[in-house]
Design a protein that fits this description.
- The chain has 80 residues and is mainly β.
- It is 0% helix and 41% strand.
- It contains no helices and 4 strands.
- A two-stranded antiparallel sheet has the order 1-2.
- A hairpin with a 5-residue loop joins β1 and β2.
- It is flat and about 45 Å long.
- It starts with 8 loop residues before the first strand and ends in a 17-residue tail after the last strand.
- The model has no long low-confidence stretch (mean pLDDT 89).
Length: 80
Amino acid sequence: ATCPCGANAKPCKWTDDWGYEEEWCFPEVDSCPVTCTSEQKRCYQTDYNASGYPEKFSESCVSQTRSCPCGTNSQECYDP
């Protein structure tokens, strides 16, 4: 049986990068982790405010052949 979450929390279920099913309580204001297919990869985004302060962290799944997207007020840089 699943244990209930406390106040201001929600249950999240996902499959981690090693194939294990996870279930944890997360704050209601946060996004739950995502479950990607074998044809996808997990991406981590950070959204910044106009002053460059991190405001929100999230995950998404994209095709293995695509680059991960950048968060709000951020840009992609390459280290040669």
